[in-house]
Amino acid sequence: MNASPPNHNPVAGSPTNPVEDAAYCANQVQEQDSDRYLVALFQPKRLRQAAITLAAWNLELSNARPPSGEKTLGLIRLQWHRDALQEILAGNPRRHPVINALAVAHESGRVDAAALDAIVEARERDLDPEPPRDLAEVEAYARATSGALHRHLWRDTKAAQAAEDAGTAFALIGLARSEPINQARGRPWAPKALNGDLRPLIQRAIELAETKGPSAAIAPATIAKGYAKRALKAKCDPTSALMAAADPWRLWRLLMTKFL
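^ thats the sequence. predicted structure below, dont judge the formating
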């Protein structure tokens, strides 16, 4: 199956130069996911480009669910990504700036394309309109997506588990903050068992954000902590401007953990 992913033509007009592909990825992440962009910039130099590439790939996956919520179309888009990963493994990546950048990262050993298929599979949960049953289900999703994504950068190191916990905390606070948008799109993430109370979700993010490890490995947790503090001040009300807006102290928080 070779259907195009959302909002991008993988053939006409796609960059083929690795430098252009890398720039495309950086621009997409900077514009659409500034938190992950900052996290990527705070990775060690050897991991930085891979972090940006994975963040750009994550954006592509997040667009798999169409605005209409049509599950079949979403499954087709996710299959497109599965096929793209197989083509990277075969040494013949399709023409798409993010996939080309991912192929470069795979060839350099910074990314293992075979391991990323599990993240695509976990993203199928995005296509289910029913909210999770409980907090454990939300955490399992966050761990299999954002947690796995950040762990991938730190795989085969002592910081792998801390990186996974940090990525999971980052996702949980993100889901809590975006709940009004997700509800409007017909895809709520607040668990049924919580009856609309997001505090347990935020508290769990805080617990996971206390993970210990190198500052770069736990950078997502550093950002999650900042958002969690703002959420508690807003009494965990996602409609509050304090909770919904970007944390203006993100950069400072990252710098403090890096140099202290």
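The chain has two domains: 7-128, 131-260.
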